[in-house]
Design brief:
Length: 267
Amino acid sequence: MTRSHFSTLFAFALLSASAIATQAQQGAASSDQPKPKPEETEVWTPVPPVVTPADNGAPPSDARILFDGKNIDEWVTVKDKSPAQWNVHDGVMTVNKSGGNIETRRSFKNYQLHVEYRIPETITGSGQARGNSGVFLASTGPGDDGYELQVLDNYNNPTYVNGMAGSLYKQAIPLANACRKPGEWNVYDVVWTAPVFNDDGSVKTPAYATVFFNGIIVENHFELKGQTLYIGKPFYKKYDKAPIKLQAHGDKSEPISFRNIWVRELP
């Protein structure tokens, strides 16, 4: 063995011995530390409120009822804030197209929303002119200002896919076509996270929507680019809370009906 080889092996042996000694010291130090306990990561307060669930889409115990089939006292006409003029009959509310859009008397920010709607069995028309309406998750002004979740008959009725039922109008294409056939009830369950604005009106955090359509997720925490527009690019304008709006669309097809509408406000 040459002297250089011997020096190399000797140096390697010293490094190995030093590493072993360091590991032994670290092990001894760690053994002196108390072992973590499961209680250290347990959180006991604040205690969540008790909410009694319900079956078959009925409202849970903490929901605000927006329509229960009896009256439309929770709604006003968008145009002049007068009492809503839609037709209540047989436990449902049917769109009065000449009465215009309606919106809730109260305003909301973040919430969980349940809405059921039915396309008439005798529906006529095609494309966007067949059972057209909308659930505006925030009504930010007159007419169709706001953020629209599209209502339309897309059971064997094609149209542009960012304007079909389950779309966030002209922004989010639904992940599935979950429409039931005309004459049957469709169900939307929505989680709405409102946009937050800085003092100067710029966007601090955008709006998000998660939508279940007849139990099938069709929008998965989608980030909106602003208000939903028929023409032009979406944009944001500052607001805090806003009503929920239902659309009286001007197409010539037979008017649709709604029932069992409720909302749960979220932090």
